[in-house]
Amino acid sequence: MGPGNRPREETVIETVVPAPEDAKSLRDIAPALDLEAEIARLRREKNAVILAHYYQDGDIQDLADFVGDSLDLARAAAGTAADTIVFCGVRFMAEVAKIVNPTKTVLLPDANAGCSLEEACRPNAFRAFREAHPDHVAITYINCSAEVKALSDIIVTSANAEHIVRQIPADKPILFSPDRHLGAYVMRRTGRPMTLWNGICIVHEQFSERELLALKARHPRAKITAHPECPEGILAHADHVGSTRNMLRYVLESPDKEFIVATEKHLLHQMQKAAPDKTVIAAPGADGSCDCARCPYMALNTLEKLYLALVNGAPRIDMPEDLRRRAYLPLQRMLDMSPPATQAMRRQPIGVAAE
Question: Fewer CB within 10 A of the end CB, N or C, for the chain?
Answer without folding.
Answer: C
